[in-house]
Amino acid sequence: MKKKLSAIVLSAVLLSSLVACGGKANEGSIPSNNADTATKSTGKKAVITIIQNKVEIQEQLEAAVKEFNSSQDQVEVQTLGVAGDNLTTVLQTQFGSAPEKAPTIFTTASGSEFEKFLPYMAELGDMKSASLILDGQDKPAMKDGKLYGLPVALEGFGLIYNKDLFSKAGVKPEDIKSIDDLVAASVKLEQQDGVKHAIAFAEESYFRFMHLFNWPFALMNNTSEVIGKINSGEVKIQDIPEMKSFAADLDKIKPHTNLSKNTYDEQVAGFAEGQFAMIHQGNWAQTLLNDYDVSFNYGFLPFPLNGNDGISIGNSNYFRVNKHASSEQQQGAKAFLDWLLTNPAGQRYVTEEFKWIPVYSGFDTSKMDPLSQEVNRFASEGKAVPWVFDQFPAGAHQDFASEMEKYYAGKETSSGLLEGLEKVWMNAAK
Amino acid sequence: MKRTATRYRNIALEVCAWLLGIIMMLPIYIMIVNSFKGRKEIFTNTFGLPDSWSFAFYAKAMEKMNFLTAFKNSLIVTAISICLIIIFAAMTSWMLVRMNNKLANLILLVFVATMLIPFQSVMIPLMQYMSSWDIPAIGFSMVNTHYGLIFMYIGFGLSMSVFLYHGFIKGVPVALEEAAMIEGCNKWQTFWKIVFPMLIPITMTVGILNLLWIWNDYLLPSLTLSSPTLRTIPLSTFFFFGEFTIQWNLAMAGLVVSIIPVIIFYLFAQKYIIKGVMAGAVK
Amino acid sequence: MKSLKRSLNNKLMAAVFIVPSLFIFINVVLVPFVMGLIYSFTDWNGFKFAGSHFVGFTNYAQIFSDTKFMTAFGLTFKYAFFMIVFVNVIGLSLALLVTSKIKTKNFLRSVYFLPNLIGGLILGFIWKFVFTKFFVQVGDMVGSDSIFFDWLDHPTAAFWALVIVGTWQMAGYVMIIYIAAIQSISDEVLEAADIDGAGKWYRFRKIVFPLIMPAFTISLFLTLSGSFKQYDTNISLTGGGPYGSTELITMNIFNTAFNLNQYPLAQAKAIVFFLVILIVTVTQVVISKKREVEQ
Fold it and tell me: Which InterPro entries match (chain B) (predicted)?
């Protein structure tokens, strides 16, 4: 009898704790339900949620949001969070099930992700910040003449080099004007103590393939035309002269690289340790370099393909506003983004806390970190190579990177690599 | 003569067991030492002991994770899910075993077969369906609530648990139950009074296996819980996992802290498994 | 009249025991599964289903021309086979070890159990270090790279790395099940065998093993379903590399959906895969059930 009683009591406790927990959970769920309640009750603030892909700035973003919330009493912004590579999956499930409850502000890349989430994006052309976007940077977020995204930050990549090592090895960065110069410099650098490889690439598919192959495509003077021809099957990658010469250049560089065998974290750590004299990376590596306590000077070097003297500058990440959110929420979302990007209080967070290079005019850029300054310098000197890799076929970056891996492992020659890339390209462009 | 041989064999066995244990622990050693290292040190000195044993990364990880809230949330979700999984699965399995007809076998087959479905292939339909269970008037929603998440955990946890219970109950003799029935117990009473106590060893096993999964699960809560106040422990480690870069020291410190409760529970449960068996033997 | 009432009562009781579970299970697992099944016959875009069109078996037809899927399929079977063998042999050995008479068995039990607690990305990271750095260092030390080289750099070795890590993680898991089974064997049975003077191996084969047969069936199935669904280790340890040679089925399905945005195709792949393993599993269960009965 006692056992029976205790079993019943146990289940009753469990049931009631379930109910109790339900009550508590409800409080937490109010923000997402506010889509309905906010529109009905006028006295209540509309709650706006924001989710974005850079977890590195999450804490700083929360601080910015706090300041914005206390600066006005119309809306309340809340930051949501998700691991970086999980964002698309989460957004997709939420928009696919209940778009009115999905985050009010979210970030997605341009290109295929833009197309994918376009039905859920509100038009942003009437915003104050929209009118301040730097020339041409709004193009990847335009559809039929309307603007559907605000660029997050300018980013630049090239070869980040160890200035101290260069001077020790007697290599002058300004003398590196061609791939042959780069190879000659690499030979000298590799004679220095502790240097394992002159150049290091990271293994993640964007770093291993997309950024690297941005060079030959972006340095053509008719990039879009050529890519169109590849898509239609008119031209094969292995028949394009620029690609052939790039493949030959890769053969020259390859012995001086780490064969792209390190993760991004390891690659930057190796650079900080002096094992790599140059890394093919962007200014986003600044936060890592800061964490690694780098003791030497470093800066950007152009990837000297065909005499190129610029670094690759662009942006592929955009703030979007959820079209299915209530009009109060959408208004509030726009107000927050305008505050962040045009109000000096918000702008301070962008440059000093997030360490972003603004894509908008009217920013004070004097307090930016070293790599960002460099990117800005290249940009202002007009030495910027555009980002074109979002024109590569959608979703193929891993397969492209696999071809690169075969090439690095010696399973494929450089001409075989081009043929392999052609196959992957055509397969994905179907 | 025979005795010494046995003793040597036992010693050899013990040595083997320890060697195995060391191999098993190697990755755990790597995890622990690296939770004390700076980001650069992790890559320059991966296998050695850290330069200093400062708990700074633990403090930082716990602060960033909002550890106490996350811990409370994880505890609520995991404990209630497991209790309910155990209650439902034990009841259902027992009935299925005792019914032992075509219908019961069919139900069992469906339970077991669905263990083969990869979660990734049902997650979008699941979220679509679950978000349609929504009554705004009373604030009822399956999405972004703990009870909604618990409901889904029960659904996914039942398959394996029913499978485990079913296998175990088949070996439990019917005689005791029949005696109880003759004494006038109905099925409900018989189950709780006679059967359930005999299931303690398998119940502990079911509990531990579900604990392992629910406590560490990231994907399902990442889809259902969006409010920061509801985050479970794995969810709150998102801070450390960027798109391309991971703050390994914080991530590992966070993991070490979050698995300690599981180890404690396991040690506790282990005692119970033994006790349960003893109790069975005394009868 | 009385028997009618009684059978009604029985039915009601059965319902009380089964219906709540079934209700939750159907709504959480079966309904989404059926929705997915329906989606696989349409051109669903991965978001709202409304507005999708039925396309018959188009998606299914496409599967069989997908060579990557076929490769992943074969590889997953190979992976599952080795996992089943290794995980169960090692898991059972561990269980026997920690239920034997050695002194530190309680402590060791926790040690063997620990690997289960590390999941996902961290697991992959740690093992990546073991294979890419530790092995290379040891190789340099012993001056031979026949065993100690960067395993993840070589397709065959990378596959075995997956098996090793999977085994390392799952062996402790099935150990728990075997322990429960071994401990439910009453001491009297074992003592009786000892008095009869039965040898250790004989005792195991003729007395212990038949009694833990149900646990064996369960563990086989859990390993099977676990290794067929393997995703975390795959993505975090090898990421499908080197050059796509270690992509298992769940990763392939996930990539089809979320990288290539071909959602209905991914659903169709999941269905085909489900049906195939269902057949395999049912066969396996039927066979081992038969053996259980024979024993």
Answer: MetI-like, MetI-like_sf
